[in-house]
Structure formats: structure tokens, C-alpha cells
Amino acid sequence: MNTPVPTRGLLPEAWRVDLPVFEGPLDLLLQLVKVNKVEITDIPVATICDQFHAYLALAEELDLDLAAEYIYEAALLIHLKSRMLLPRTPRAPGEPEEDPREELVARLLEYRRLKEAAQSLAEIESLRRGIWRREGGPPEDLGAPAEEAGEIDLGDLSLYDLLGALRGVLVRYDKAHPPAYHLDREHFSVRDQVHRLLAELDRGRPFDLVADLRARSCRAEVIAAFLAVLELARLSLVRVHQTEAGDVVLYRTTREAAGEELEALAG
Amino acid sequence: MTERAEMEAAIEAVLFVSSEPVPRERLAEMFDEADRAEAAAAIDAVVRRYAAEGGGDGEGGEGGDGAGGGGRGVFVEEVAGGVRLVTRPEMNPWLRRFFEVTGSQKLSMAAIETLAIIAYRQPMTAPEIQELRSVSPSGVIKTLLERRMIRIAGRKEVVGRPFLYCTTREFLVHFGLKSLKDLPPLDELDEALEEAGGEIG
Amino acid sequence: MTERAEMEAAIEAVLFVSSEPVPRERLAEMFDEADRAEAAAAIDAVVRRYAAEGGGDGEGGEGGDGAGGGGRGVFVEEVAGGVRLVTRPEMNPWLRRFFEVTGSQKLSMAAIETLAIIAYRQPMTAPEIQELRSVSPSGVIKTLLERRMIRIAGRKEVVGRPFLYCTTREFLVHFGLKSLKDLPPLDELDEALEEAGGEIG
């Protein structure tokens, strides 16, 4: 099927000058319904689809970072547009024929209801933003509970607060107890790194140590890998060489590793 | 047995020092069993005292003690199942000028849309909200959790076991609602909006 | 040019919000030069408004039309630094009573953190919690026990045989959890809130 390249000429005059931003694809669709002065229940799919695409094209031109949901909705619209062209099959004898737009209409109506509700909430909010509470809490000398930052009424305490609190504790604990690398050995043992390095070196290619260390997943693994290199050098299993360019290259020596030597390495 | 005037004074004092909405029953509990009916009337009296509009209309016989007539800067609002003493919204420009405060952070339209969906359809999961808005709500949900407008209310027993979200007491306070029943009905929004506006003024 | 009623309302609102005494000049400075004399009179009017004594004249209207006359729980106090709105000293027994009856449902940050630690690492002993928070948790453990969020689940067989703490059924109910397995892992929420933010390109 051939989708015509949408042009901005399809968009309402005002949008071509100052492209509005929407809360999402449904919001854009609602606005298109409005500017075209059509009923939600009887949407001219082809027109709306073309305008939707024109909006997307213009938004892209303007480097507006539209969410992927717009693209998804655009695809749905094209699909719908094509279905509108197909002959429709009656559901059952006597019943009205199926309208491919039904689902879109239902979604739009539902969204419009919620959007109206949201707008009324927004109006209430802007009225109420002018309300101030008294500064300072209740008097503690009269038995009122001391107010301190961060305290929360038990009734209002949520899982989100609990998670935030736990995260706070762990962050503070980590700061007070900087991780010593021996804690990480459980995950990245020097022995594993020795085996990994030997396997790499046995492929016979020049081995760039810095690049290899950069490719490690975290600091703990870098440390383990580096210790492994030192061990390998100590056991004369590798030779470490610095090139004139500054690269550090490892070479495998001819010496064969004795099993127990490797076993003795830090686990 | 407590004098009615003393009751009203005590209620006013408590409302003055409490920063959160106080349920009427908790106010009444300050007094003896036998006084509870009178206490309820006293609470109403204090609420009405602050409801007196500026300009001194109506309160004719009142000039003497200087209580009436002058404009009121505070009022008792009924919210989140309780009552609290706060400034009238019209005082905002004066307060901002005096305390030299600029702008308070307002919820974005995306946040309010998501909040409306949760408020009317709670409990809701993020995928359900996305279905309704056609936009991923994850960033907005985080904002709403941080602003304490919504809370996690368990998990839904469907694939992925997503979190269920509900609105909070803070939500009621923020939007001046007595309870969730007070939400503007989805179908009679215009009417309800007028009412809500009238209540504040 | 500001209406007198509006002036009084603004002054009342500022006094209500401010926890510090406010110099009269600063109150007057809210208004235009030309209004300063009027402003001074408005301040006096607000002070008088709150000065109306409790037991006074208004008692007559017992039907409770609430239009003033009722006792006042707050008054405008003249102190060195200016004027401020405070509760009348006679109200102190009532305030004490109110806070006694209602108690506090507030949890401190320390209590919330301790609850989070116990929830995620249970069973935990006080020394273990102290190790994580580097603060003795005994006070907050008491609070959490009183609030029935945690319970004692035996003793740990180590030196000192400290109590082991677990969360309670009420804890699960409060957070809408079916079982402890439903507690969200630390990073799940982040993932839930950050994923699906897919953008073009």
C-alpha cells in the first residue's frame, strides 16, 4: 500500500506557525477531531490519519522528541484507514454491519471523559494553590508530638516511603563502609580471571590489557582481572610488555601452568 | 460540663495549632460524653465564625465587639474527613508579597491526567493507565508518588503482577475534597466544578 | 488603594501564617504609601477582633448562630518584635488534652528506616539494625512495637541473646501485601517506573 507523504499543508493554519504539544497520541487525535469539527462517533479516518502523520512529520522536522506511542498510534491509524476501504462483513443477518472505527471511538470517548475530569481537577488545583497553612507545627510544650523533617503519619506511610527509607540506609551504610574488594571476590575471583586470561591468550592473538580491563563489567571485576595479571606474571605464565605507543600487551610464555599453582590462587 | 464559649475557644485553639485536618469526632472527644452534642454545635459555630465573609454583610448586630465586619483572611475548610484552618485563597497575592515567595510547583497536565485516572478508577496499574492514556505513565507515577498524591496499594494478580496505585489523604487535601465521593462526577463535571469553586470562595 | 475589609483580611492572613512576631511597620508596608494610616487602623481592628474575651457579651445567642460572641481560643499578642497570633494561655489544658487523647500517629524518619530494615531483612536484632543505621534503635523499636508494625519473634542464639524482630500481620494489611514475598525488591520499583519511556530515535 502506498502512504502519501504527508505535508504540513494538511494541518490547521495555526499549527503550521506554532506547533502545539500534546499529552499523547489520543490527545492529538481529540484535537484533530475538534479542529475538523467532526463527531468522535463519525471520524473521517483518511483525513484524520493524514493530518496525524503530517503532525508527526512536522514534529520530527522541528526535533520535537515525540514518544514512541505516537508512532504506534500512527501505525494503528494506517491500518484502520486501509480497513475502511475493504468491504465489510455483516456480523449476523439483520444486525448492523461492523464499523472498524468502533474501538478507536470507544478509546477516544473514554479518554475525553478522563481528560475533562483532569481539567476540572486542574482548575480546582489552581484555585487552591492560594491556600496557605500556618507555619511551624503544634506546640511541643503542650504535649504535641515533636515535628521533625521527614516524618510521616502512619496512616500515610506507603511502600514507596519504605523503599526510599531502605535505600537511604543502604546508601549511608555504603558511604560509611567503602566496599573492600575482598567482599567482591564472591562474584569475581582472581582464579576465574586467571582462567579467562589464559584462555584469551591461548588464542595466540596480541592481547591489549587496557582494552581488556575496560571491557570488564565493574570495578570489582577490573580489580580481580588486574590481580590475575599480576599472579600470572609472578608465575611466569605471561610476560607484560609496554609498547612505544603506550599500550600494555600480554604475551603467553611457553611455561605450562601446574594445576596446583592455579588452585592455590585466591578463590 | 463545659461552657459553650469555652468549648468554642478550645476548638478554635486546637484548629489553630493543628496543621493537619482534624476529624470532627476527635475535636468532640476533648469534651465529656455528656457534652458531645453541644460540642458538635460548637464546632459548627466556629466553622461559621470563620465563614463570615468580608465586608460585614448580614452580621448586623455585631459591631460592638469588633468581631464582625472586618474581612476575614482565614477560613475553616472541610477536607479529607476533617476540618482545618487555612488562609483564604484570595489572600495569596498578599501572602506572596509579604513572605516574598515566588511560584509553588504545580502538577503537570500529564500528572493530573494520570492522577484523574487513578482517582476515578482506583486501584489502577501502570499498564491499565497506559491503555487509557496511550502514553507510558512511569515518569509521572514517580512524581505522583513523590508528591504523595498516590500510594502503592498492593499488586494485581495478573501477568507481571504490577503494582496497584490508589490516591492518598494528601490527594484529598490537595484538591479540597472531603472524601473520594466528593470527586466531581465524570458526567456532570461543569456543575460540580461550579460547586467546588463556590465552596472555596 | 485597598479596601479596608481587604486590608484586615490580608493582615489576618499574614499573622495566621507567620510563626514569628511581625513588626507593625512590616504589616503596613504591604500597602501603598497613601494607605498607611488606614493600614495602622486596620491592624488595630484585627488586634481588637481577637481581643474579644471568651465569657463576654455574646453568650446570649445560645441557639448558636455562631456569629461571634463565642469564646476565642487565639489572640493577638504584642511582643517586643511586633504582633503575633497565638493561642490564649488559658487554652493550654485543652491543647494538652487534645494531644493526649489523639496521640501522634507520626513516624519519625528513624522509625521508618528501622521498619524498612526489619521488613526487608527479617528477622533482625537491635544490634544488627544498629550496625546498619549506626544509631541505637531501641526507642524506635518501642514505637514500632506499640504501633503493631513489628513483633518479637524469639531470641537470637548469640552473645546477649537479643530479641529477633519481624513484621506483623498488621504490617502486611497496612501496605496491602498478601505476604512478605510481595514486598517489591529494591530495584523493581525503579525499573517499573523507568522502563517503557521509549522515545523516537
- Helix/strand-derived class of chain A? mainly alpha
**Beta-strand fraction estimate of chain A:** 5-15%
Q: What pair of chains forms the biggest interface?
A: B-C, 68 and 69 residues
**Which ranges of chain B are low-confidence, i.e. pLDDT below 50, for 5 or more consecutive residues?**
54-68, 189-193, 197-201
Q: Average the pLDDT over all residues of chain A and give the rounded result.
A: 80
Assembly state: heterotrimer
- Specify Rg of chain A, calculated over alpha carbons: 33 Å
Structural class computed from helices and strand pairing of chain B: alpha+beta
Give the topology string of chain A: H per helix, E per strand.
Answer: HHHHHEHHHEHHEEH
Strand order of the largest sheet of chain B: 3-5-4
| Beta content of chain B | 5-15%
Give a short account of the largest sheet of chain B. Answer: 3 strands, antiparallel
Describe the overall structure.
The complex is a heterotrimer, with one copy of chain A (267 residues) and two copies of chain B (201 residues). Chain A has 267 residues and is mainly α. Helix content of chain A is 52%, strand content 5%. Chain A has eleven helices and four strands; from the N terminus they run αααααβαααβααββα. A three-stranded antiparallel sheet of chain A has the order 2-4-3. In chain A, helix 2 packs across helix 5 (102-128) and helix 3 (45-61) packs antiparallel against helix 4. Chain A is extended and about 85 Å long. The two termini of chain A are 63 Å apart. The mean pLDDT of chain A is 80. In chain B, helix 1 packs across helix 3 (36-51) and helix 5 (109-121) packs across helix 7 (138-146). The two termini of chain B are 36 Å apart. In chain B, the strands form two sheets. In chain B, strands 3-5-4 form a three-stranded antiparallel sheet. Chain B has a two-stranded antiparallel ribbon with strand order 1-2. Chain B has helices at 4-17, 24-28, 36-51, 92-99, 109-121, 126-133, 138-146, 169-174, 189-200, and strands at 74-79, 82-87, 124-125, 150-155, 163-167. The relative contact order of chain B is 0.10. With 201 residues, chain B is of the alpha+beta class. Residues 54-68, 189-193 and 197-201 of chain B have low confidence and may be disordered. At the B-C interface, helix 1, helix 3, helix 4, helix 7 and strand 4 of B face helix 1, helix 3, helix 4 and helix 9 of C. Strand 1 of chain A pairs antiparallel with strand 3 of chain C, so a sheet runs across the interface.
